[in-house]
Design a protein that fits this description.
479 residues, alpha/beta, TIM Barrel, 2 domains, 10-stranded mixed β-sheet, 5-stranded mixed β-sheet, 21 strands, 29% helix, globular, binds iron/sulfur cluster
């Protein structure tokens, strides 16, 4: 399996170290006893490597998952191992797992959980692990880094180590199986990894099937906003209505069942929705990552609002149009370790203003801030404005400035499609071009769905109430 894409999101070591090495085919096993921690061991034979595989699964169930799995889940895992390995496994089907098996937490592969069922995806782990299992010149060795030792047994496989390191001691991964392979979503920092089963077609060029459940959904929960921005592409006003709590919660439930990873709540001004707390709590309890975009700096001054956002949200997008607003945000959120993404709309001001914003962003710690550039959308009140088209390759200039502090840069598909030539130097593993496939838009006030929040009203489709099948059908179709 190849890593064909990575989407950086709202973005170890220990006493034990386990390594993947290349070694002579006749390398002997050492200390194969189901417990892989501090003491030295070598898993060289296929049988020993299966033993390590099973110990990893057992550790994920019993040691590192807060008892998420029922007996039914565990029976499912046992049957999965028998189905996948199809040869001698180190336990009896009728007696179950050797419960004393163990891989040290700092070296244990975190097996992702299926986004809809919440079960460990042993199938994904097995497919990835097969390149070690099927190669008799590849072994896993372990021990500890408290003692002087040399790798006398072979050469460290840097390439394989890198591929696995994403999963070591990293917390909560969700996974979805797709035609092209797998998508993994790391809930703690929003990173998505795309694994292709065959070939190396990067994310930017991949052809997704006609039916595809989006990975994230942009949801308007209110049309209310009193800011009156002249560039508001949704034309929101203080007369705007809020979506009902019932409708929003029903949509969240359907999206979770369908396998959507993230919901970006927007408006209008979502912080003005009277039931926002219940909405965020509900999404959080369902295990779907809730993000939110706001321009309501006043509400952010409330410690209660900040506490709620910090507890229930993955990341907060804050719309900014100049450097002074960024300074104000920094003052308000100073004491909190927020995951903030600055949203900046292109085409409203000369390109120099963008560089001012970028220079200001690098004053934030990289763990706190990232920038999302949004394309100009000529709808709502913005339809009265003239877009300024940037003549210079602002993407590469911006990336070079942000590199100094490793601050993340994101763009929406409107930017990619508006300035395709500026993306020729960007790794095609890092972006996707088509609107309305990887993401969808739901207007919970109107009860409609569309490809994006800026399609014309005629292209928005009514969501029929109380019809789960139709909801999934709309969600996974090209609208
Ligand atoms: S752009 Fe955002 S902040 Fe401005 S009026 Fe529209 S919804 Fe309100």
């Amino acid at each position: 399996m190849e890593l064909i894409g990575k989407r950086q999101g709202f973005a170890t070591n220990s006493s034990s170290t386990h390594s993947i090495i290349f070694c002579p085919p006749d390398t002997s096993n050492l200390n194969i006893n189901n417990r892989y921690g501090f003491d030295p061991f070598i898993c060289a034979s296929r049988e020993a490597k299966i033993n390590y595989f099973v110990a990893t699964v057992v550790s994920n169930i019993y040691s590192y998952s807060d008892n998420k799995d029922s007996n039914e889940d565990i029976l499912y895992y046992i049957s999965e191992i028998y189905r996948l390995v199809r040869e001698k496994v180190p336990f009896s089907l009728f007696e179950g797992f050797p419960a004393n098996s163990y891989v040290d937490h700092q070296s244990c592969f975190s097996i992702p959980r299926d986004v809809a069922t919440n079960r460990l995806s042993i199938e994904f782990f097995y497919e990835l692990y097969s390149e070690i299992l099927d190669n008799d010149e590849c072994a896993i060795i372990g021990g500890n880094d408290n003692e002087e030792s040399t790798y006398d047994y072979g050469v460290l496989s840097t390439d394989l180590q890198l591929r696995y390191s994403e999963f070591i001691d990293r917390g909560n991964f969700l996974i979805r199986k797709e035609e092209f392979g797998y998508i993994l979503f790391f809930q703690d920092n929003g990173t998505k990894l795309y694994y292709g089963k065959s070939g190396k077609v990067p994310l930017a060029d991949i052809q997704l099937p006609k039916k595809y459940v989006p990975e994230l959904v942009d949801m308007t929960i209110t049309d209310y906003c009193s800011k009156g921005c002249k560039f508001c592409y949704r034309g929101c006003t203080a007369e705007g209505k809020h979506a009902s709590l019932y409708k929003v919660i029903t949509y969240i439930d359907e999206l979770k069942k369908a396998g959507v990873f993230e919901i970006a709540l927007g408006g209008g001004e979502p912080l003005q929705h009277p039931e926002l707390l219940k909405i965020l709590e509900h999404g959080y309890d369902k295990g779907i990552t809730m993000n939110l975009t706001t321009r309501d700096y006043e509400s952010l001054k409330s410690p209660i609002v900040r506490e709620v956002l910090q507890k229930y949200c993955g990341a907060i997008g804050i719309s900014v149009s100049n450097v002074n607003e960024m300074k104000k945000i920094r003052e308000i959120l100073d004491t909190l370790y927020f995951k903030v993404t600055y949203h900046y709309v292109l085409g409203l001001e000369p390109v120099e203003k963008l560089y001012d914003i970028v220079q200001e962003a690098i004053k934030d710690p990289p763990s706190v801030a990232s920038i999302l550039l949004l394309g100009f959308k000529p709808t709502g009140r913005a339809s009265d404005l003239d877009e300024i088209v940037y003549e210079e390759d602002f993407i590469n200039i911006t990336m070079n400035i942000l590199k100094k502090k490793y601050i993340k840069l994101g763009v929406d598909t409107a930017v990619i499609n508006r300035y395709p030539t500026y993306f020729t130097n960007v790794d095609p593993k890092l972006y996707y071009k088509h609107e309305g496939i990887i993401s969808k838009y739901i207007d919970a006030v109107a009860g409609t769905m569309g490809e994006s929040s800026f399609v014309s009203p005629e292209r928005m489709v009514k969501i029929p109430p109380y019809n789960n099948a139709k909801f999934i059908e709309l969600l996974s179709s090209r609208l």
